[in-house]
Write a structure and sequence with these properties.
CATH superfamily of the largest domain in chain B: Histidine kinase-like ATPase, C-terminal domain
Largest sheet of chain B: 5 strands, mixed
Shape of chain A: elongated
Distance between the termini of chain A: 72 Å
Strand content of chain B: 15-25%
Radius of gyration of chain A: 37 Å
Largest sheet of chain A: 5 strands, parallel
CATH topology of the domain at 224-377 in chain A: Heat Shock Protein 90
CATH class of the largest domain in chain B: Alpha Beta
Order of helices and strands of chain A: EHEHEHEHEHHEHEEHEEHEE
Strand order of the largest sheet of chain A: 2-1-3-4-5
Number of helices of chain B: 6
Structural class of chain B: alpha+beta
Number of helices of chain A: 9
Oligomer: heterodimer
CATH class of the domain at 224-377 in chain A: Alpha Beta
Strand content of chain A: 15-25%
Helix content of chain A: 40-55%
Structural class of chain A: alpha/beta
CATH architecture of the domain at 224-377 in chain A: 2-Layer Sandwich
Number of strands of chain B: 9
CATH topology of the largest domain in chain B: Heat Shock Protein 90
Order of helices and strands of chain B: EEHHHEHEEHEEHEE
Helix content of chain B: 55-70%
Strand order of the largest sheet of chain B: 4-6-7-9-8
Distance between the termini of chain B: 31 Å
Largest interface: A-B, 23 and 28 residues
CATH architecture of the largest domain in chain B: 2-Layer Sandwich
Chain lengths: ~375, ~260
């Protein structure tokens, strides 16, 4: 028989070594306008494994290649055709395993009933159509997802570029306004001074946002790989933050003992983590001070940051690490609300823990626990 | 146990048992052979019923066409519908296929008839009667019964003059020939081609059963060996000589007396 063009979809392929059976089965579908191909030689049928075929209907007992083996061949070639076997009743039990391996949709026993056979074939076609639709839908969803992912990636890159590009102009703007502030320090125009102060605060807020945006992007691209010596880092951070604390009349003390403490976290991120939390503590404390304790334990490095600030209500404790979380009573203090969420991400990426205890009117204790790198490493 | 009033011999009981066992073994294959023609004949009958419906529909439409008192425009309309029907029902294709359908179904019935007849002959009661039998028919009946065992891995060619008759008990001769053919098939590794030729030469009839392969590593089962010994005894009874030559092929040559 003539092999159809490969791009044509074959509705039904019938394979049987008995030509009379082939013709009789084809006749069953004469009213149905189906694209049918028939083979009395299973080896020739096997060559169509790359064709789009909805249903393969195959006799089992054939010379050289059995029906089971032919259908398994199509399965192994990832042909999506629904596979139906015609077999003698006595063969079923001995072929159960083979039927399962070839993932036969249904089998029909001989002598077959033509109405039953027709129904099974149409069930097979419906199964093929459903599978094809599902694959098409998945492909479409995947394409949409890829497109959306690319858009998000472009937006992220743009945001990163914008954040990066804003830094210099913001610095220049701040410098300019500080110069103006110095020039008008003797002038008694209060509204001008207030305007300048508001402008400076806005610039600071913008600067914090751009820094956070840049860090967020880095967090997502670069999971922690290196180690950081926490003792020295805390010393450096504390010495810088002491200046800000002193301006507010607050104390800022570090207590640490023992030898070097290496934690499994990137230095830049650890630095950001401690600057954020200690900076926050100073920001939200009006009087008293901040104390930082470093403890080296068996498998972790624990850092406690205690403040004598306003404290956080118990019902708010669970969401302060969410993005944009800020307490109502601190809306006047500069910050975007992303700082603690960034800290949480840094600690989670490092497989550590970040928690807080707080009493309103007394203060808060932030506990950072980072995995410790063993000295032998 | 007695067979037709004669006392049972050891050979008789051995032959009886071997024959019954072989019929039992062949039953599954025979059922499969019956399934195929039953399947397609039954299917063709259903298709014929569908074709008949289509023809009926066409005939009903033609009747409208030839209704007395039709106005010209009614006739034209009916004619148009008739032509449409002929096209939609693919009547021309049905007519063409009708002949094939009936012919193939008839062949299927003939095959069934032949198979049943062969089975009846092969399985009939042993009368011990020696008679003149047509060798060609005997061989064909044997091959019909063995067909399912052989057809998937082996090609069989038979060449036998219709006029060759031999004197033998057909039941026993059928068993012997079946056993020898299956022995040749087994020794060939159960594959390849087997040629069976029967020809007269001088006062004898020679039957050659030849395969194109010989598998040296085949080990025959005890049952196969026993059946072969019984076949040898049967042939000896009718003064038939048997010679096996196994080299690159399996060649069995029988020398029988003419009837």
């Amino acid at each position: 028989m003539e092999t159809p063009a490969q791009e044509k979809v074959i509705d039904l392929m019938i394979v049987d070594d008995d030509p009379k059976t082939l013709k009789a089965v084809s006749r069953i579908f004469h009213r149905d306008d189906l694209e049918i191909v028939t083979f009395d030689c299973p080896e020739k049928a096997a060559k169509l494994c790359n064709y789009q075929i909805k249903v393969i209907l195959c006799d089992n007992k054939m010379p050289k290649i059995s029906g089971i083996d032919l259908l398994r061949h199509f399965l192994e070639k990832k042909n999506r055709a629904t596979r139906i076997l015609i077999t003698g009743h006595a063969e079923i039990e001995s072929m159960e395993a083979a039927i399962n391996v070839s993932q036969i949709f249904k089998y029909v026993t001989k002598p077959y009933d033509s109405k039953e056979l027709r129904e099974v074939v149409f069930q097979g076609m419906a199964k093929y159509d459903k599978k094809t639709q599902s694959i098409a839908q998945s492909k479409s969803d995947l394409a949409a997802l890829n497109s959306a992912t690319k858009r998000v990636e472009r937006y992220e890159q743009n945001a990163k570029a914008v954040a990066h590009d804003l830094r210099n102009p913001l610095s220049t703007l701040r410098l300019g306004l500080e110069l103006v502030e110095d020039r008008i320090s003797d002038v008694s125009d209060q509204s001008a001074k207030k305007f300048l102060e508001a402008s400076l605060r806005s610039i600071d807020r913008l600067t914090v946002i751009t820094k956070d945006l840049t860090l967020r992007d880095k967090n997502e691209e670069n999971p922690p790989k290196s180690f950081t010596e926490i003792r020295q880092l805390l010393k450096d951070v504390t010495s810088i933050e002491k200046i800000a604390a002193k301006k507010k009349g607050l104390s800022c003390e570090l207590s640490q003992s023992g030898s070097e403490c290496w934690a499994l976290v990137e230095e830049e991120k650890a630095s950001r983590l401690f600057f954020n939390i200690i900076g926050n503590a100073i920001k939200y404390t009006r009087e008293g001070g901040i104390r930082i304790n470093l403890n080296k334990k068996d498998s972790t490095i624990d850092v406690e940051i205690m403040d004598t600030g306003d404290g956080i209500p118990q019902d708010k404790l669970h969401w302060i690490f969410e993005r944009d979380a800020r307490l109502n009573n601190h809306k006047d203090i500069r910050g975007t609300g992303v700082g603690l969420s960034v800290c949480k991400e840094i600690v989670d990426d490092a497989k550590g823990e970040l928690s807080v205890n707080s009493v309103v009117g007394v203060g808060s204790v932030f506990l950072i626990s980072l995995p410790r790198v063993m000295d032998s490493n | 146990m007695q067979i037709d009033g004669k006392p049972e011999t050891t050979f008789e009981s051995r032959f009886c048992r071997a024959r019954q066992a072989s019929i039992g073994r062949l039953t599954l294959g025979l059922a499969h052979e019956l399934n195929n023609p039953i399947g397609f004949v039954s299917s063709n009958l259903q298709s014929l019923a569908n074709y008949t419906e289509d023809f009926k529909t066409l005939i009903d439409q033609v009747k409208k066409l030839s209704k007395p008192g039709n106005r010209p425009e009614e006739i034209a309309d009916s004619l148009e519908k008739t032509n449409e029907l002929i096209e939609n029902l693919a009547i021309d294709e049905l007519i063409e296929d009708l002949e094939n359908l009936t012919h193939e179904s008839q062949e299927g019935m003939d095959r069934l008839q032949s198979l049943v007849a062969s089975l009846q002959e092969f399985g009939k009661k042993d009368t011990l009667k020696v008679e003149s039998i047509e060798l060609e028919k005997c061989l064909k009946r044997v091959l019909a019964v063995l067909r399912n065992e052989l057809k998937y891995t082996c090609e069989i060619d038979i060449e036998c003059d219709k006029s060759i008759n031999i004197a033998a008990n057909e039941t026993r001769l059928s068993f012997a020939l079946a056993t020898i053919v299956m022995r040749v098939f087994a020794l060939s590794g159960s594959r390849g081609k087997i040629e069976i030729k029967a020809y007269p030469e001088n006062e004898y009839i020679f039957v050659s059963i030849l395969s194109d392969k010989y598998d040296h590593q085949v080990e025959l089962e005890n049952r196969q060996q026993e059946d072969f010994e019984i076949a040898r005894s049967i042939l000896h009874e009718i003064s038939c000589k048997m010679e096996f030559q196994n080299d690159k092929q399996v060649n069995c040559l029988l020398q029988l007396n003419k009837s």
